[in-house]
Amino acid sequence: MQLSPAYKTIFNKALEKSSLKPTKQREHIFSLILDKKDHPTADEIFTRSRDTMPTISLATVYNCLETLVESGLIRQVNFERESTRYCPNLKPHAHFLCKNTGNIYDVDLPDSIFSALKKNLPENFQTEQIDINFNGSIKKN
Amino acid sequence: MQLSPAYKTIFNKALEKSSLKPTKQREHIFSLILDKKDHPTADEIFTRSRDTMPTISLATVYNCLETLVESGLIRQVNFERESTRYCPNLKPHAHFLCKNTGNIYDVDLPDSIFSALKKNLPENFQTEQIDINFNGSIKKN
DNA sequence: AAATTAATTTAGAATTATTCTAATTACACT
DNA sequence: AGTGTAATTAGAATAATTCTAAATTAATTT
After folding, report:
1. What percent of chain A has pLDDT over 90?
2. CATH assignment at residue B83
3. A 16-45 residues with CB below 8 A of B?
4. Could you tell me the distance in Å between the CA of residue B136 and the C1' of nucleotide D27?
5. Is B99 among the domain residues?
6. Please, what is the angle between helix A24-35 and helix A42-52, to 10°?
7. Strand A125-138 relative to strand B125-138: parallel, antiparallel, unpaired?
8. Which of A48, A114, B18, B74 fits a 20 to 30 Å CA distance from A123?
9. What is residue A31's predicted lDDT score, i.e. its pLDDT?
10. Are residues B35 and B73 in the same domain?
11. Is the model's pLDDT at A141 over the cut of 80?
12. Does A13 have pLDDT greater than 70?
């Protein structure tokens, strides 16, 4: 429940860049997300936070998540209208939701596929972000 | 506000296949979605419905949308956790959300891109659906 | 060190989209 | 015409998130 020196630096830099303060609540939540990369919801993060920081409030969890997204340290993951989930993997990747278990998996993708996708847009469409979600199941063998 | 004979047949067949009744509310909502393909929300559909069917309820709109999705006549479109939108385009395609106007555009995609995407999954991952969302803006020129 | 300021945290209320519930209505089939 | 099943309806309930206003914290100036 403690950021490594390397991440601590990344954390400080990212927040500073957005003129946000590196508070202990923000750091705590960031470290929780790095610690268990199972794409938790705000509520799950709230519950986990309470174990080691019993006074944190749900509103603070939401606030911190917002600032972490804003400063580019984590990203949101949405499937349909389910609760928003949070992911610290910043490489370009997609998500796979297993309909049986509810687990979400990161799917690394080459840059080439993002450029191939953009080729299908009219030229005046400027893309800022592409979200790719797989739905399916995982066969055991 | 009337289905063409061709769509009427598609509509009847699709509902029959799911053992659902082709009621006038369901038909009305389906025809509204076909008439104005601007990816309306349930609430927008409700408002539009009222113009020509003043007694329809919001619950019915939600119910009908659910059955239309279930029977494969329309699909849901979700950006982040915004209200679910509905789309009658059944060809494989993505969506582009313009952050300035809020408009959503269909982006036709070749099948090849879907198979290219699936190649990045572990072999035991079985895909049922892939959702692709672009975010950005449209440059006028 | 005390005072000032601005940002952050907090608890709880408010909001919003959607789902649920239970009663009514509509329709197909005896 | 009567019965049974599915669909519709109005309004209540739910759940995730955002808002509000007060309290706390941290940094800066006096």
Report:
1. 97
2. 1.10.10.10
3. none
4. 38
5. yes
6. 110
7. antiparallel
8. B74
9. 98
10. yes
11. no
12. yes
Average pLDDT, chain A: 97
- What is the mean pLDDT of the segment spanning B53-72? 98
Please count the residue pairs, one from chain A and one from chain B, whose beta carbons lie less than 8 angstroms apart.
Answer: 112
Domain annotation covers residue B141: no
Does the pLDDT of residue A1 top 90, yes or no? no
Provide the β-strand partners of residue A136: A98, B127
Question: Which residue in this structure is represented by tokens 């799911």?
Answer: B18
* Residue A118 and residue A66 share a domain: no
Number of independent structural domains in chain A:
2
Cβ distance of B78 and A76 shorter than 8 Å: no
Q: In chain C, which nucleotides are within 7 Å of a protein Cβ?
A: 7-12, 16-21, 27
| pLDDT for the residue numbered A59 | 98
Q: Which amino acid is at A91?
A: K
- Residues facing B106 on adjacent strands: B95
From the list B96, B121, B138, the residue facing A96 with the nearest CB is: B121
In a shared domain, residues A72 and A23: yes
Q: Which of A69, A87, A105 is the last residue of a domain?
A: A87
* Residue B57 lies in domain: 5-87
Residues A78 and A116 in one domain: no
Question: Is it the case that residue B141 has pLDDT exceeding 80?
Answer: no
Contact list, B108 vs chain A (CB under 8 Å): 120
Q: What angle do CA B80, B81, B87 make, to 5 degrees?
A: 80
The minimal CB distance from B132 to the residues A84, A110, A130 is found for: A130
Residues B82 and B102 in one domain: no
* Cα B101 from Cα A51, distance rounded (Å): 43
Note which residues in 48-77 of chain B have CB less than 8 A from chain A.
76
Q: What is the pLDDT of residues A79-115, one digit of tens each?
A: 999 999 999 999 999 999 999 999 999 999 999 999 9
Q: Is the dihedral of CA A91, A93, A96, A97 positive or negative?
A: positive
Other C-beta atoms closer than 10 Å to the C-beta of A104 total 20
